[in-house]
Please model this.
Amino acid sequence: MPYWLAGKGAGLWMRLSPVKRRTTERNLERCYPRMSPAERGRLARESFRHYLCSVLETGHNWYWPLDRLQSLCDEFVGQELAEQALASGRGVVVLAPHFGAWEYLGMYLQRIPDIAILYKPPSHPRLEEALLSKRRRGGANLIPATPTGLRQLYAHIRAGKGAGVLPDQQPSAGQGCFAPFFGHPALTGVLVPRLVQRTGCLVLASVCERRPGGRYRVHLLPVEADIYSTDIATSLAAMNRAIEQCIAVDPAQYLWSYRRFKSQPQGGEPFYG
Model:
Protein backbone atom coordinates (compact mmCIF):
# COMPACT_ATOMS: atom_id res chain seq x y z
CA MET A 1 0.00 0.00 0.00
CA PRO A 2 2.75 2.60 0.78
CA TYR A 3 4.41 1.88 -2.56
CA TRP A 4 1.11 2.21 -4.45
CA LEU A 5 0.08 5.39 -2.63
CA ALA A 6 3.52 6.93 -3.17
CA GLY A 7 3.20 6.32 -6.90
CA LYS A 8 -0.12 8.15 -6.94
CA GLY A 9 1.10 11.03 -4.79
CA ALA A 10 4.63 11.63 -6.12
CA GLY A 11 3.57 14.37 -8.54
CA LEU A 12 1.64 16.23 -5.86
CA TRP A 13 4.55 15.81 -3.43
CA MET A 14 6.84 17.46 -5.97
CA ARG A 15 4.47 20.40 -6.49
CA LEU A 16 4.08 20.95 -2.75
CA SER A 17 7.85 20.81 -2.17
CA PRO A 18 9.42 23.29 -4.63
CA VAL A 19 12.68 23.60 -2.67
CA LYS A 20 13.18 19.83 -2.49
CA ARG A 21 12.20 19.53 -6.15
CA ARG A 22 14.76 22.14 -7.18
CA THR A 23 17.41 20.51 -5.00
CA THR A 24 16.69 17.16 -6.66
CA GLU A 25 16.94 18.68 -10.12
CA ARG A 26 20.23 20.43 -9.33
CA ASN A 27 21.74 17.28 -7.86
CA LEU A 28 20.76 15.19 -10.86
CA GLU A 29 22.11 17.80 -13.27
CA ARG A 30 25.45 17.71 -11.48
CA CYS A 31 25.72 13.96 -10.98
CA TYR A 32 24.30 12.83 -14.35
CA PRO A 33 25.29 15.59 -16.81
CA ARG A 34 25.10 13.25 -19.82
CA MET A 35 21.55 12.18 -19.06
CA SER A 36 18.86 13.87 -21.13
CA PRO A 37 16.52 16.36 -19.39
CA ALA A 38 13.59 14.01 -19.99
CA GLU A 39 15.42 11.12 -18.34
CA ARG A 40 16.40 13.28 -15.37
CA GLY A 41 12.78 14.39 -15.06
CA ARG A 42 11.60 10.78 -14.85
CA LEU A 43 14.36 10.00 -12.37
CA ALA A 44 13.37 12.99 -10.21
CA ARG A 45 9.73 11.86 -10.10
CA GLU A 46 10.70 8.30 -9.16
CA SER A 47 13.00 9.69 -6.48
CA PHE A 48 10.05 11.58 -4.99
CA ARG A 49 7.99 8.40 -5.12
CA HIS A 50 10.58 6.58 -3.02
CA TYR A 51 10.96 9.56 -0.69
CA LEU A 52 7.21 9.60 -0.02
CA CYS A 53 7.19 5.83 0.32
CA SER A 54 9.81 6.09 3.07
CA VAL A 55 7.42 8.32 5.00
CA LEU A 56 4.43 6.03 4.46
CA GLU A 57 6.38 2.93 5.52
CA THR A 58 6.88 4.31 9.02
CA GLY A 59 3.75 2.53 10.23
CA HIS A 60 4.90 -1.01 9.58
CA ASN A 61 8.55 -0.20 10.34
CA TRP A 62 7.59 0.95 13.83
CA TYR A 63 4.64 -1.23 14.74
CA TRP A 64 4.80 -4.60 12.99
CA PRO A 65 6.36 -7.55 14.85
CA LEU A 66 10.02 -7.71 13.86
CA ASP A 67 9.88 -11.24 12.43
CA ARG A 68 6.94 -10.27 10.20
CA LEU A 69 8.77 -7.14 9.08
CA GLN A 70 12.01 -8.98 8.30
CA SER A 71 10.10 -11.62 6.32
CA LEU A 72 9.39 -8.96 3.66
CA CYS A 73 13.01 -9.26 2.48
CA ASP A 74 13.31 -11.63 -0.47
CA GLU A 75 17.11 -11.78 -0.61
CA PHE A 76 20.20 -10.73 1.33
CA VAL A 77 22.84 -10.27 -1.35
CA GLY A 78 26.38 -10.54 0.02
CA GLN A 79 25.43 -11.95 3.41
CA GLU A 80 28.64 -13.97 3.40
CA LEU A 81 30.64 -10.71 3.46
CA ALA A 82 29.15 -9.83 6.86
CA GLU A 83 29.79 -13.32 8.21
CA GLN A 84 33.43 -13.26 7.07
CA ALA A 85 34.03 -9.74 8.39
CA LEU A 86 32.56 -10.48 11.83
CA ALA A 87 34.51 -13.74 12.02
CA SER A 88 37.74 -11.74 11.65
CA GLY A 89 37.23 -10.23 15.11
CA ARG A 90 38.37 -6.82 13.87
CA GLY A 91 34.97 -5.14 14.07
CA VAL A 92 32.92 -3.97 11.10
CA VAL A 93 31.53 -0.61 10.02
CA VAL A 94 28.63 -0.78 7.55
CA LEU A 95 28.09 2.32 5.40
CA ALA A 96 24.34 2.80 4.94
CA PRO A 97 23.54 5.88 2.80
CA HIS A 98 20.11 7.48 2.31
CA PHE A 99 18.98 4.96 -0.26
CA GLY A 100 15.70 3.10 -0.68
CA ALA A 101 14.22 1.75 2.54
CA TRP A 102 17.01 2.83 4.90
CA GLU A 103 14.70 2.74 7.93
CA TYR A 104 13.78 -0.85 7.07
CA LEU A 105 17.47 -1.64 6.58
CA GLY A 106 18.16 -0.64 10.19
CA MET A 107 15.48 -3.06 11.35
CA TYR A 108 16.64 -5.87 9.06
CA LEU A 109 20.31 -5.64 10.05
CA GLN A 110 19.30 -6.36 13.63
CA ARG A 111 19.52 -9.98 12.53
CA ILE A 112 23.27 -9.48 13.08
CA PRO A 113 24.03 -10.11 16.80
CA ASP A 114 25.16 -7.11 18.88
CA ILE A 115 24.93 -4.64 16.01
CA ALA A 116 25.04 -0.94 16.88
CA ILE A 117 23.48 1.88 14.86
CA LEU A 118 24.75 5.44 15.06
CA TYR A 119 21.98 8.05 14.96
CA LYS A 120 21.66 11.83 15.11
CA PRO A 121 19.53 12.71 18.16
CA PRO A 122 16.44 14.81 17.29
CA SER A 123 15.99 18.10 19.10
CA HIS A 124 12.78 17.00 20.86
CA PRO A 125 13.38 14.54 23.76
CA ARG A 126 9.99 12.83 23.41
CA LEU A 127 10.62 12.19 19.71
CA GLU A 128 13.98 10.66 20.55
CA GLU A 129 12.33 8.44 23.14
CA ALA A 130 9.81 7.23 20.55
CA LEU A 131 12.52 6.60 17.94
CA LEU A 132 14.62 4.59 20.35
CA SER A 133 11.74 2.46 21.59
CA LYS A 134 10.76 1.48 18.03
CA ARG A 135 14.19 1.12 16.43
CA ARG A 136 15.89 -0.96 19.12
CA ARG A 137 13.19 -3.59 19.54
CA GLY A 138 15.33 -6.12 17.67
CA GLY A 139 18.12 -5.75 20.19
CA ALA A 140 20.25 -3.14 18.42
CA ASN A 141 22.43 -0.80 20.42
CA LEU A 142 21.48 2.69 19.25
CA ILE A 143 24.35 5.08 19.85
CA PRO A 144 23.85 8.87 19.63
CA ALA A 145 26.29 10.90 17.54
CA THR A 146 27.53 12.83 20.56
CA PRO A 147 31.02 12.90 22.13
CA THR A 148 29.93 10.34 24.72
CA GLY A 149 28.19 8.24 22.09
CA LEU A 150 31.24 8.23 19.81
CA ARG A 151 33.38 6.89 22.65
CA GLN A 152 30.84 4.07 23.01
CA LEU A 153 31.06 3.45 19.27
CA TYR A 154 34.85 3.13 19.34
CA ALA A 155 34.63 0.68 22.24
CA HIS A 156 31.94 -1.32 20.43
CA ILE A 157 34.07 -1.64 17.28
CA ARG A 158 37.22 -2.51 19.24
CA ALA A 159 35.25 -5.36 20.82
CA GLY A 160 34.96 -6.89 17.34
CA LYS A 161 31.29 -6.02 16.79
CA GLY A 162 29.42 -4.38 13.90
CA ALA A 163 27.96 -0.89 13.54
CA GLY A 164 25.90 0.91 10.91
CA VAL A 165 26.78 4.51 9.99
CA LEU A 166 25.15 7.04 7.65
CA PRO A 167 28.08 8.22 5.49
CA ASP A 168 26.36 10.90 3.38
CA GLN A 169 25.14 13.41 5.96
CA GLN A 170 26.52 16.94 6.16
CA PRO A 171 29.05 16.78 9.02
CA SER A 172 29.20 19.23 11.88
CA ALA A 173 31.72 22.07 11.82
CA GLY A 174 35.26 20.74 11.95
CA GLN A 175 34.14 17.13 11.39
CA GLY A 176 34.46 16.96 7.62
CA CYS A 177 36.71 17.47 4.60
CA PHE A 178 35.89 17.91 0.93
CA ALA A 179 36.11 14.77 -1.20
CA PRO A 180 34.92 13.93 -4.73
CA PHE A 181 31.31 12.75 -5.05
CA PHE A 182 30.31 12.08 -8.64
CA GLY A 183 33.40 14.08 -9.56
CA HIS A 184 32.50 17.20 -7.54
CA PRO A 185 33.71 18.31 -4.09
CA ALA A 186 31.28 17.42 -1.31
CA LEU A 187 31.83 18.01 2.39
CA THR A 188 32.21 14.51 3.81
CA GLY A 189 32.35 13.32 7.41
CA VAL A 190 35.69 11.98 8.63
CA LEU A 191 34.28 9.60 11.25
CA VAL A 192 34.71 6.43 9.20
CA PRO A 193 38.38 7.01 8.26
CA ARG A 194 39.11 7.79 11.90
CA LEU A 195 37.35 4.62 13.03
CA VAL A 196 39.39 2.61 10.54
CA GLN A 197 42.70 4.15 11.56
CA ARG A 198 42.11 3.91 15.32
CA THR A 199 40.48 0.47 15.51
CA GLY A 200 41.67 -1.43 12.43
CA CYS A 201 38.07 -2.37 11.60
CA LEU A 202 36.73 -3.61 8.27
CA VAL A 203 34.29 -1.58 6.14
CA LEU A 204 31.35 -2.72 4.03
CA ALA A 205 28.46 -0.83 2.39
CA SER A 206 24.78 -1.73 2.48
CA VAL A 207 21.47 -0.60 0.99
CA CYS A 208 17.93 -1.90 1.04
CA GLU A 209 16.36 -1.92 -2.41
CA ARG A 210 12.63 -1.33 -2.41
CA ARG A 211 10.76 -3.68 -4.76
CA PRO A 212 7.16 -3.68 -6.05
CA GLY A 213 4.52 -5.33 -3.92
CA GLY A 214 5.95 -4.18 -0.61
CA ARG A 215 9.02 -6.39 -0.83
CA TYR A 216 12.72 -5.65 -0.26
CA ARG A 217 16.18 -6.84 -1.24
CA VAL A 218 19.17 -6.07 1.01
CA HIS A 219 22.59 -5.63 -0.60
CA LEU A 220 25.93 -5.85 1.17
CA LEU A 221 28.78 -4.53 -0.97
CA PRO A 222 32.57 -4.58 -0.63
CA VAL A 223 34.44 -1.29 -0.34
CA GLU A 224 37.69 -0.43 -2.15
CA ALA A 225 40.93 -1.03 -0.29
CA ASP A 226 41.67 2.71 -0.41
CA ILE A 227 39.20 3.13 2.47
CA TYR A 228 41.99 1.81 4.73
CA SER A 229 44.52 4.41 3.59
CA THR A 230 46.12 6.53 6.29
CA ASP A 231 45.72 9.51 3.95
CA ILE A 232 42.37 11.04 4.89
CA ALA A 233 41.66 12.37 1.37
CA THR A 234 42.24 8.95 -0.18
CA SER A 235 40.03 7.23 2.39
CA LEU A 236 37.20 9.76 1.99
CA ALA A 237 37.29 9.48 -1.80
CA ALA A 238 36.96 5.69 -1.48
CA MET A 239 34.01 6.09 0.88
CA ASN A 240 32.22 8.38 -1.56
CA ARG A 241 32.86 5.92 -4.39
CA ALA A 242 31.25 3.25 -2.21
CA ILE A 243 28.18 5.50 -1.88
CA GLU A 244 28.12 5.91 -5.67
CA GLN A 245 28.25 2.12 -5.99
CA CYS A 246 25.27 1.85 -3.65
CA ILE A 247 23.32 4.42 -5.68
CA ALA A 248 24.04 2.44 -8.87
CA VAL A 249 21.83 -0.40 -7.55
CA ASP A 250 18.87 1.85 -8.53
CA PRO A 251 19.57 5.61 -8.86
CA ALA A 252 15.88 6.48 -8.45
CA GLN A 253 15.94 5.23 -4.86
CA TYR A 254 18.59 7.65 -3.62
CA LEU A 255 17.45 10.69 -1.60
CA TRP A 256 18.35 13.28 -4.24
CA SER A 257 16.44 15.98 -2.36
CA TYR A 258 19.22 16.06 0.26
CA ARG A 259 21.55 19.06 -0.10
CA ARG A 260 24.73 17.05 -0.48
CA PHE A 261 26.58 20.00 -2.06
CA LYS A 262 25.31 22.67 0.32
CA SER A 263 28.82 23.45 1.56
CA GLN A 264 31.31 24.57 -1.06
CA PRO A 265 35.08 24.98 -0.94
CA GLN A 266 36.25 28.44 0.05
CA GLY A 267 35.39 30.92 -2.68
CA GLY A 268 32.87 28.61 -4.34
CA GLU A 269 29.46 29.87 -5.46
CA PRO A 270 26.37 28.60 -3.58
CA PHE A 271 25.22 25.54 -5.49
CA TYR A 272 21.51 25.66 -4.62
CA GLY A 273 21.02 29.42 -4.82
Remarks:
- The radius of gyration is 18 Å.
